[in-house]
Amino acid sequence: MNNDKRVVFNIQKCCVNDGPGIRTTVFLKGCMLNCLWCHNPESKAMKPQLMLHKSRCIGCLECQRVCPSGLHTVGEDGAHLIDRASCIACGKCADACVGALEICGKEMTVPEIIKEVMKDKAFYDNSGGGVTLSGGDPLLTPDFTLELLKAAKENGLHTCIETCGHAKWEDVQKLIPYVDIFLWDVKESDPVRHKEFTGVSNERILANLRTLSENGAKIILRCPLIPGYNARREHLEAIGELAQALDGVLQVEVEPYHPLGASKSEDIGKEYPLPDISFQKDETVKEWIEIISSKTTKTVKKA
Q1: Cα–Cα distance for residue pair 68/47, rounded to 1 Å
Q2: Angle 231-233-238 from CA coordinates, rounded to 5°
Q3: Residue 260: count of CB within 10 angstroms of its CB
Q4: N or C: which end of the chain has fewer CB within 10 A?
């Protein structure tokens, strides 16, 4: 991929849960983790992908007509089939479709992203907001992310970055002068379980987090909680203890599991690895917050 570009899969306006004030969140494609519960599975791969929303397909077969490689077919049961292994996401089928097909991801330069973000500068100024980089994970391409953050600061923007933190410390360190708040994911406290759930150990992640705090960075811990996986007392207490031990941590944000990743996985032709888990009741989330709060004086709230 061109080092001057990165694939963006969404630029979401008027966000209020990705840092202070009203913000624009830039979602970058590509992640170094492979979390079982990922609610944005379309963000894992760096390249653009073809998404098929089966419920919107009207069977017009325009995609079959325009696809240069003949990758769209109809199964014996009438199902819309795509040879995804051969698809290069050229977008011709999506252009011809009435709404069932779309290309997820577009290569963009730093100036192109900043131009879009700056359209809502008045909202940031009036609310104390700004821009948040998310993903995927911005640290997958640290040089691009550094240039994007520098450009944001040159335009007077408050900046946040959401990351899993699995990167070289040198890549994290060089971002510090350009990041107002790090939104740091804490997915699992036990290193063995962390590797089971995400594909990597948490040792580098926690080491980077501690060093980041020692360097005076402001941090919000963001904690996805999934029943049957990491939503257990030991992990919840460990989150509180971690927050209390780090001076840089401003607060803890609990992110209750939601099952929206399942449908998105189907849209990109992937099998979702988790069983059917429903949205969490408010009472359950309140109990999680209380357990974390028992180990820290920092604010703990639902994201």
Answers
A1: 19
A2: 95
A3: 12
A4: N
